[in-house]
UniProtKB/TrEMBL annotation:
<feature type="domain" description="N-acetyltransferase">
    <location>
        <begin position="3"/>
        <end position="157"/>
    </location>
</feature>
<dbReference type="InterPro" id="IPR000182">
    <property type="entry name" value="GNAT_dom"/>
</dbReference>
<dbReference type="Pfam" id="PF13673">
    <property type="entry name" value="Acetyltransf_10"/>
</dbReference>
<dbReference type="InterPro" id="IPR052564">
    <property type="entry name" value="N-acetyltrans/Recomb-assoc"/>
</dbReference>
<protein>
    <submittedName>
        <fullName>Acetyltransferase, GNAT family</fullName>
    </submittedName>
</protein>
<dbReference type="GO" id="GO:0016747">
    <property type="term" value="F:acyltransferase activity, transferring groups other than amino-acyl groups"/>
</dbReference>
<dbReference type="InterPro" id="IPR016181">
    <property type="entry name" value="Acyl_CoA_acyltransferase"/>
</dbReference>
<keyword id="KW-0808">Transferase</keyword>
Length: 157
């Protein structure tokens, strides 16, 4: 499947928030317990807060070619090459959307002079990043609303 990668717009807020929540509930639930999933999916805030966060970041979305009304996923990157979020709707998992998004922000980070890409990734997403040259440099145990999670700091030169 092919995807158009374009900049995030405020009218993408509801679709990106839905993709985030559907991804956490539908994909990450194999690696985290139900209470962790509820906490993680609920920590995004309301739609206005979500839009403000996505608008203030360098956020990109993947739209399936031929279906401009659908949104497959989204990603963001800062000027240092840090990827804060990469989420794909489960309907588009393993279709190339995440790869296309990562390729776009890798180019963007290089254009901005970043020497590497880094990400704090979930157990679920770790294999995706490993297949794309990222390596684990730290196992982390962040707390969200008093609940401990496992994730990984991964870096790719």
């Amino acid at each position: 499947m092919r995807f158009l990668i374009r900049k995030y717009r405020s009218d993408d807020a509801a679709a990106t928030l839905a993709a985030f929540r559907r991804s956490v509930v539908g994909l990450a639930s194999h690696d985290y317990d139900p209470e962790q999933i509820r906490t993680w999916a609920g920590q995004a805030g309301d739609l206005r807060q979500w839009d403000e966060r996505r608008s203030s970041a360098d956020t990109w979305v993947a739209v399936p070619e031929g279906n401009a009304n659908a949104l497959a996923g989204f990603i963001d990157v800062d000027g240092n090459g840090y990827i804060d979020m990469l989420f794909v709707d489960p309907d588009y998992a393993r279709c190339g959307a995440a790869s296309a998004l990562l390729a776009r922000v890798a180019r963007r980070a290089a254009e901005q002079g970043a020497g590497e890409l880094s990400v704090h990734t979930s157990i679920t997403a770790r294999p995706f990043f490993e297949r794309r040259g990222f390596r684990v440099v730290q196992v982390r145990h962040p707390m969200i609303e008093g609940m401990s999670f496992v994730n990984y700091l991964m870096i790719r030169p």
